[in-house]
Amino acid sequence: EKGGYDHFMLKEIYEQPQVIRDTFRGRLLSDQGLIKMAGIEDNLNKFINAKRIIIAACGTSWHAGLVAEYMIEEFARIPVEVEYASEFRYRNPIINADDVVIAISQSGETADTLAAIKLAKEKGAFVFGVCNVVGSSISRETHAGAYTHAGPEIGVASTKAFTTQITVLALIALRLAKAKGTMSQSDYLRNLIELELIPEKVQEALLENDKILEIAKIYKDAPNCLFLGRGFNFPVALEGALKLKEISYIHAEGYPAAEMKHGPIALIDENMPVIVIAPQQNHYDKVVSNIQEIKARSGKIIALVSKGDEQVKNLADHIIEMPNSTEALTSIIATIPLQLLSYHVAVLRGTNVDQPRNLAKSVTVE
Ligand code: M6R
């Protein structure tokens, strides 16, 4: 059942090229420059006329929501707010009939997310679901939706659900951008073509596995760990930290790299591993200066870099290479090494990787 892998989590990490492809198959028609998703087409006016999109989710799905916020705002220029479902449901939020609420959930059974949906519906909002489990409570409770095609996710730590959520949300953001005319045709087409290449690029990122195992051996006993990223990779840093804490029980924090100066930098000394997501893109120079600041305080730097990067290589203690994509879609690729790193650290520490202590696969009580 684990298909020759030691754990479901590892199997699910390696399934990502396939399930990402399954998720865009039939929806992404890059040669025609089209995106076709029934749930969006049928409700296109609601999205286009939305004054605001509110995303409600928990855990890893909330991180996917943050990536979606950046994509929808940049591509389609619609204001987005991302809410923890548990906070949203209890704080008497302002919801109007011209708001669109997107609920994201792998299981489709998360109690807080379900309650947030019910509240949004009561207030007259249109509610769209992004779920993995077909026929789940959330998929039934929402007005419309789009499934991720990740297949069953058994490991408690979410992996393939996250990258397929980003895939669906990228399709939505691009479709809305096209409808609103907010993105240049060349940027739009480039993202379509790059999305189609993501499965092979994820496959390429997986080739760093042996190197990541060696890095895991060096840092497996660290009591703390920081994850830093900027832009679309800030949510990826949060997700990397969540993955490490949940399966290895190492205390980890994710931050936008520039926030380091506002507090976390005080933690950095020669015992602190800092994982920095540093692809050669928009924020590259800024991230390089963040890396220099860490180095000046003797922090141990593990950097995720674009293939062939030389500058960061000279500064970091370890580099993990990955292929480049568009700024937005690199978030999918950068997730892969972080999943593998947590996995190996957890295995080396002898924890129950697929069934970490105190956690359940779906949180059906609040
Ligand atoms: O099924 P959902 O996506 O609604 O679940 C949300 C969270 O409970 C879930 O992502 C949790 O944080 C995972 N264990 C993270 O790996």
Automatic annotation (TrEMBL):
It comes from the Bacteria. GO terms for cellular component: cytosol. The active site is at K361. Keywords: Aminotransferase, Cytoplasm, Glutamine amidotransferase, Repeat, Transferase. One of its GO terms (molecular function) is glutamine-fructose-6-phosphate transaminase (isomerizing) activity. Its EC number is 2.6.1.16. It is found in: Cytoplasm. GO terms for biological process: carbohydrate metabolic process; fructose 6-phosphate metabolic process; protein N-linked glycosylation; UDP-N-acetylglucosamine metabolic process. Its main location: cytoplasm. Transmembrane segments: none annotated. The keyword Hydrolase does not apply. Catalyzes the first step in hexosamine metabolism, converting fructose-6P into glucosamine-6P using glutamine as a nitrogen source. This is Glutamine--fructose-6-phosphate aminotransferase [isomerizing]. It comes from Paenimyroides viscosum. The chain holds residues 250 to 615 of 615 of the full protein.
